[in-house]
Specification:
heterodimer, A: 109 residues, alpha/beta, Udp-n-acetylmuramoylalanyl-d-glutamate--2,6- Diaminopimelate Ligase, Chain: A, domain 1, five-stranded mixed beta sheet, 5 helices, 18% strand, globular, B: alpha+beta, Heat Shock Protein 90, five-stranded antiparallel beta sheet
């Protein structure tokens, strides 16, 4: 499933739109070095971390989209960087576990 | 041998620009048609080094040399130096402060990740003088 389809079907907020591409896997985490070394390519990355470095790391790991969970919204610096890097940033009110279940169900990963 | 040499000043006070140098290298390698796996390894190893310079050393200088078959990265800072390199290389060991941890760093994975994603790594460090890290990534 593509990120735009996933965004629509999940009902998650869309903070930032990037290039449309397929979600091929998932990864949950907030410690950036763990994410850098372990997150698979083209994943949907679920986190509660909200700062500009999340955008830099998302580019490095080449994830399909970021899902900010538990009602987290990107701050201004994060939003600006995400736009500049053309990243998908979505927002879920659910906690990481519940949001993750939606990714699994909708994207079949 | 001819190589492309890129130089970056890593701003030590600015967390929002941290990663700009590795992002630029990543873009350059991509444009040159380097295999995605190699691009990723270079970008990750360098990003971790860049972040370390911001967190621990008030910034520094990054020099990147791109050869047809590999990339050499030199990260040089005038920070406090590393007292015990062996300990610093241990996964999970970190001297980062609470405020750094709240940004998602300080998991003690920076140096181990640099080692994991490079083919050669050397650390020269003198306490009170600074640290130079050399990283070599061979293309697939």
């Amino acid at each position: 499933m593509t990120v735009s389809e996933f965004a629509e079907k999940s009902g998650f907020a869309v903070f930032c739109r990037g290039e449309d591409r397929a979600v091929e896997s998932g990864y949950c985490g907030d410690f950036l070095s763990n994410i850098i070394s372990r997150a698979p390519d083209s994943c949907c990355w679920l986190t509660v971390m909200n700062n500009v470095n999340v955008a830099a790391v998302a580019t490095l790991i080449d994830c399909a989209c970021i899902v900010l969970c538990e009602g987290t919204e990107p701050d201004e610096a994060f939003y600006k960087k995400a736009q500049e890097l053309k990243l998908w940033v979505l927002g879920a009110n659910e906690n990481v576990f519940e949001a993750c279940k939606k990714v699994v169900k909708l994207c079949n990963v | 041998m001819q190589c492309i040499r890129l130089e970056y000043d890593v701003d030590g006070e600015n967390f929002s620009s941290a990663g700009n140098a590795s992002e630029s290298v990543k873009r350059t390698l991509k444009q040159m048609g380097v295999a995605p796996g190699s691009v990723r390894r270079v970008a990750i190893a360098m990003y971790e080094g860049e972040i370390n310079m911001v967190i621990h050393a008030h910034g520094g200088k990054a020099v990147v040399e791109i050869y047809p078959e590999r990339v050499d990265i030199y990260l040089k800072d005038s920070g406090p130096g590393i007292e015990n390199i062996e300990l610093a290389m241990k996964a999970g060991y970190s001297t980062a402060t609470e405020s750094i941890r709240s940004l998602g760093f300080g998991a003690g994975m920076g140096l181990p990740n640099m080692k994991k994603y490079s083919d050669e790594m050397r650390i020269d460090s003198t306490v009170g003088v600074g640290t130079t890290v050399f990283l070599r990534v061979n293309f697939e």
